[in-house]
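Hi everyone, sorry if this is the wrong subforum. Our group has a chain we'd like a structural model of before ordering constructs, and none of us has done structure prediction before. Sequence below.
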Amino acid sequence: MYPGNKIEIKGAKELEKVLRMLPRKMGEDVLVRSTRVGANIIKKEVKEQAPITGKPTHLKYGRLRDNIKTTKIRNRGGAGTIRIHTGRAFWGLFLEFGTSKMTAKPFFRPAFDSTYPKALDRIGKRLGINLEKAATQLAGRYRSLSKAQRRRLR
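Answer:
Right subforum, don't worry. Here is the predicted structure as tokens:
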């Protein structure tokens, strides 16, 4: 478990500057695609640690493991966020935190705690790859501009 429930990422300010240099949509796309890679690592572990019941808890909604998903959420600032959630399996919350009649059987938090270092490492590597692709794509656009258009961009 990480101390004080904080994750320290070195170079975050520099990364933010680089992302701000890209067009807004392209920067968001780079960030979301990179973050999704790490989120999928955590999601896989959450699915493995999710409790299995002998039969579906709610036939209408399906099994808890089948409902664990990642979703892209749009923020007002333009940055994309990936959320890992239990989908329609609302009872996952009861299992994770317990109720007045049932003790907690956490599965989500332990899965996160065991995989976040690997996920952060993978996100960092993927960010490098995606930033290189975005830079190459922008360079191609810049090359196709006329000399007069390039002078105006300086």
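For your construct planning: The CA atoms of residues 42 and 115 lie 6 Å apart. Strands lie at 69-74, 80-85.
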